[in-house]
Design goal:
By secondary structure, this protein is of the alpha/beta class. The chain is about 45% helix and about 20% strand. Strands 12-11-15-16-10-17 form a 6-stranded parallel sheet. Helix 9 crosses helix 11 and helix 12 crosses helix 18. The two termini are about 55 Å apart. About 0% of the residues have low confidence.
């Protein structure tokens, strides 16, 4: 589409709404211009527009390569001429006003008609044949439209797009101005597409104090969200003060006492949870989490503890015998470390297999999966991504799913069908590339695992980390509370790989050759 840059005005009647996106208001309409016999196509973001409505638009003409000449609307403007106002009032917009009544009103008030309706609507009784009952009906309908127009104008004048205006009005209705004036940062909570920075611009437009509690509380939530995007689960008090000062352009000393009250309010409302802790050789400080993330962390810890507290039956000798027989039959050579890992994996309710590249994780994992099947267990395989799941399918010759598919993600409910009340139907679950699992996904996965199910995580803590918050796999291993085995021996076929040699040199703190 080639657009012209010259702004112009289009006046006419809406004859047909060809298309309307109810989500964002973008529409394609046909308009009969005031001074033409040929109808034209108009596109734009219209929060409210009806067939038969008389409108005036500011916009640009453009040439669409498929649909021809179109008018691209930038905004609607109220009519200014008497003729335009008459057409506007009689275009089914106001209940009780038809062509005859519109003619009489405009004939009486002229170009001041819209101002009269806004400021002195009772004067309609001055117009012949409009009685008190009809006047009240017209005033009620006009005020309803006036509220809508005022709301739209308020939103647009405060830097919000027509698309966002539609979402906001749909959410708050006639209370839009009241809600936003009281706390513009509520927009970041309720409206998709509006974050703290956009809401803060609105707050500045309406004159909210730069150190208002509403602004500081919203900024704290924003900073915690930003921290999560960088993989962190919480921020300390000092970190928040420093980041707040930069984000809000405020003095740290001035912020400290206000922030203390804001943190207290956020805790009381359940938005965040603050905990005191003491690191080695440090003073006691506070960590501040978004509430759902700390609850997810707690669910993960409690579920893993419940699994570990429900040990498997000891079948060590049987497992060793099967593994040695399988290796001989398959023609594979298992190292002592691989054999130990396989035995531990099959003997523990919750187990982690880890190790760097070239140490035989794939062979070990494949043997574990075949062992579980030989023990008569139903096995579910999964990985965080489609590519990783496909690779697991290829090496195991069994179907592997993404974790989201395993948990049966449902967009309609924005959640998983598999949960504590509807657990995964498997006696053993093997998850590959577990380093990519974030804390919230880990909580959802563990929620859907019954305590009599066996779970095995496979992953390299030095590989891709999770996109979301938390370092799930590494923290479990570093805790030394979880059964795990780290494969370290590089196999002969991998020793010639410069990439694998370099990776291990870096992991051991050496400068790669």
């Amino acid at each position: 589409m080639q657009d012209t840059t010259e702004m112009t005005q289009l006046i006419g009647e809406v004859t047909k709404i060809s298309f309307r996106n109810e989500e964002n208001g973008w529409s394609v309409v046909r308009i009969q211009p005031e001074e033409s016999t040929n109808q034209v196509t108009v596109t734009g973001d219209f929060t409210r527009i009806e067939e038969g409505e008389y409108i005036e638009l500011i916009g640009q003409w453009s040439q669409h390569r498929t649909y021809g000449r179109q008018f691209k609307s930038i905004r609607k403007v109220p009519p200014t001429t008497s003729a335009g106002i008459e057409r506007y009032l009689s275009s089914r917009l106001i209940k009780g006003i038809g062509k005859v009544t519109a003619n009489k009103i405009v004939d009486h008030f002229g170009s001041d008609t819209l101002e009269i309706l806004d400021q002195y609507p009772h004067r309609l009784t001055e117009v012949g044949s409009i009685g008190k009952k009809k006047t009240n009906s017209i005033i009620a309908s006009w005020n309803q439209n006036k509220t809508s127009r005022a709301t739209e104008l308020f939103l647009l004048n405060n830097g919000l797009s027509p698309k966002l205006a539609i979402q906001i009005i749909r959410k708050y209705g006639d209370d839009t101005i009241k809600v936003i004036s009281a706390n513009p940062f509520q927009l970041a909570v309720d409206i998709s597409g509006i974050g703290f920075l956009s809401a803060d611009r609105v707050a500045q437009h309406i004159g909210l104090e730069c150190d208002s509690p509403e602004r500081i509380k919203a900024a704290i939530i924003y900073l915690l969200e930003q921290a999560e995007d960088n993989g962190h689960c919480y921020l300390t008090t000092n970190q928040i003060i420093s980041k707040l000062a930069d984000t809000l352009n405020l003095d740290e000393e001035k912020l400290a006492p206000i922030m203390a009250d804001c943190l207290k309010d956020l805790n009381q409302s359940g938005s965040i949870i603050s905990e005191k802790f003491k690191m080695k050789n440090q003073d006691v400080t506070s960590s501040h989490y978004r509430a759902d993330l700390l609850l997810a962390e707690t669910r993960v810890a409690n579920k893993i503890q419940a699994l570990i507290n429900n040990p498997l039956k000891n079948e060590r000798e049987r497992i060793i015998a099967w593994t040695e027989k399988f290796a001989e039959k398959s023609g594979i050579s298992l190292s002592e470390g691989q054999l130990l890992a396989i035995v531990k994996a099959a003997s523990e309710r919750f187990f982690i297999l880890t190790g760097g590249p070239g140490v035989g994780k794939t062979t070990t994992a494949n043997t574990i999966i075949r062992l579980l099947k030989a023990m008569g267990k139903t096995v579910a395989l999964a990985a965080p991504t489609g590519r990783a799941a496909q690779r697991l399918t290829e090496v195991s010759a069994l179907e592997a799913k993404t974790i989201h598919r395993l948990l049966q993600w449902t967009p309609q409910n924005n959640g998983f069908s598999k949960n504590e009340d509807n657990p995964i139907n498997a006696q053993a679950i093997v998850i590959d590339e577990a380093s990519m699992i974030d804390l919230r996904l880990a909580a959802s996965l563990l929620d859907a695992i019954a305590t009599n199910t066996q779970i095995i995580l496979i992953g390299d803590t030095d590989q891709l980390p999770s996109v979301g918050a938390g370092n799930f796999l590494r923290d479990l291993i570093d805790s030394n509370q979880i059964p795990f085995y780290r494969l370290t021996d590089i196999f002969r076929q991998a020793e010639t790989s410069q990439i694998i040699k370099t990776a291990h040199q870096i992991n051991s703190g050496k400068v790669p050759s």
